[in-house]
Amino acid sequence: MSKNLLEHINNPADLRKLSLSELPDLARELREFIIDIVSVKEGHLGASLGVVELTIALHYVFDTPNDLLVWDVGHQAYGHKILTERRTKFDTNRQLGGISGFPKRSESVYDTFGVGHSSTSISAALGMAIASQLKGENRHHIAVIGDASIASGMAFEGLNHAGVTAANLLVILNDNAIGIDPTVGALKHYLTSVKEGKNPKQNNMIKSLNFDYSGPIDGHDLSKLISELERLKKTKGPKFLHIVTTKGKGLEQAEKDQVKYHAPGKFDAKTGEITQKSEAHLPMKFQDVFGLTLVELAKNNSKIIGITPAMPSGSSMKFMMDAFPDRAFDVGIAEQHAVTLSAGMATQGMVVFCNIYSTFLQRAYDQVIHDVALQNLPVIFCLDRAGLVGEDGATHHGVFDIAYLRCIPNMIIYAPKDELDLQNILYTASLGLPHPIAIRYPRGRGKYSNSEFRIQNLEFEKIEIGKANLLKNGTKTAVLSTGFIGNNVSLALENGNQPKTIAHYDFGFIKPLDEKLLHEIFSSFENIITIEDGTIKGGFGSAIVEFASENNYSKSIKVLGIPDVFIEHGTVEELQKICKIDVKSLENIFLNY
């Protein structure tokens, strides 16, 4: 058996020097390499293991980077990165200053398109293919998309356009029946029937869109893959290859539990056993506070509905789906549909909790404005992963939601400072509001231990809309914080060296602002400091500056938050330090006040 093939491959040109008979050994080594690194450094595991053979075959057959390869989402691109000049620094994956966990144009010429959100690959590759045509270039353009991503509206838009072009485009469907959670919807059933041979090829929907369709073929059979890719390489126009793979291939536990091993954290590279962490003493995750609270509320209100676009586990909507399967819906990777579906239900008096990651609600911005806010429908948007999310980086930070929602008429925006506030605003919203509301809360855990949280949470309390709260008295400087980042302020002010003249206010409501309290603050303090874990351009601090301008206050105002740049990947603590909103940075800032 050949050994150590991988260590001699720095780029696809080296890969193409291997014989066909050596490629299965390379596939084994590549899997082992990914498992060894991810088991220690963490990251997205299952998706990349599932496309090892496909990755090798694509770079073996096509002349990358001259031929342009686009990976949808990018969860599955670890093997691609390793084979394209990043093997020796793959251990820096997703770490501060290291390589990105997703394809990124500025990182490598082999990363032809920056991804992180789903269903963009077909449109991007088609754009490249049409551009190549116009320039008279002879290049191939390949989009690799999963069966969960292809169900999204944008993917269909790309297919619809591509089918009426002569573009040299190859779409490869990586069909493994799972995204992060199991794939849902009618298209999944269609693809399953195709795989099982129950759907006649003359009824093939992809062929009907004018694609040269082939498959399904075994995506782990290198000889079949290479043979079919070589054939397609000679075929003109839009082509579609349907391959069947197993997510987590090569690691038994990852194949058996594909949801858990999508991004399993640290695990034993030999056995696959996930490193267990004692969580009994840790605070509850905000997502679980949301999910469990929603179930409690739904027990007493039959009109409560839960909706999530393909994130039942990540958002903890799974609790609602298990408890009330007829009233909780995973609509697939379809944020636009999720928002307008929620709006439709709201017109009929349902109390709809639409749970979407902050970064993904951006994908449904028109629907938020046109279908919800314009009609003043009381949809309850629960924005998980608001603020800095850590190692997933710029594509996933939820730092724009305050700015892009604050400008929309009728929208209420609330950021809880802790788990209790989250529960109480969910309860308040469930009682009925006159407007839509966006509730933004962070990735990760709250601040109370499990025992404290249970003791303090015997009953829900209704929150007064638009009311801010004083957390600490002061005389000279007022710090106005919104959301969970306010806990950093509290910790910084607990330092005995801090001036006693600093007051601290929690503005859970970003819109509407507590203007009565703001008039008191601007009349009483010399300096104002605002802090948020969102962009300072158009965010909470901007709202305070606008208030001061409108009311002719000329006080000193310092705005802290995410600067006007895309923040890269690293731990949340590292990124907060870069943005100067970590506890230590705040301590240093406050010393000057």
TrEMBL record:
InterPro entries: Dxylulose-5-P_synthase (IPR005477), THDP-binding (IPR029061), Transketo_C/PFOR_II (IPR009014), Transketolase-like_Pyr-bd (IPR005475), Transketolase_BS (IPR020826), Transketolase_C (IPR033248). PROSITE patterns: TRANSKETOLASE_2. Binds 1 Mg(2+) ion per subunit. Binds 1 thiamine pyrophosphate per subunit. It comes from the Bacteria. Residues 284-448 form the Transketolase-like pyrimidine-binding domain. Belongs to the transketolase family. DXPS subfamily. Homodimer. This is 1-deoxy-D-xylulose-5-phosphate synthase. It comes from Flavobacterium macrobrachii.
